[in-house]
Design a protein that fits this description.
By secondary structure, this protein is an alpha+beta fold. The chain is built from two helices and two strands, in the order ααββ. It has a domain of 61 residues. A hairpin with a 5-residue loop joins strand 1 and strand 2. The longest helix is centred in the N-terminal third of the chain and has 15 residues.
Amino acid sequence: MAAPPPTVTLSPQVYRAVSALLATSSGFTAECRIAPDDIAWATSHGGALRTFEHPDGSVTFTKAHRDDCPFVAHSGREDCDDDCSFELPSRR
């Protein structure tokens, strides 16, 4: 028998952020159904979804183009060069 899929529990802040994401993209009465094919495509293209909860109550959702890319969150100063080479700031 295959193991059941893991259960993911969302914090209240992440749950509210997902609601806000849907509302800001499609209106406050938005409803969105994502087809299994779309889920499969998104899973097989690019890295995993990352969620960062910030102390000010905001939440960042980001999806790197590959799981091993260090550029998982946009800093506003650097973008990935598609080789995923990353020079540590301390070595500059």
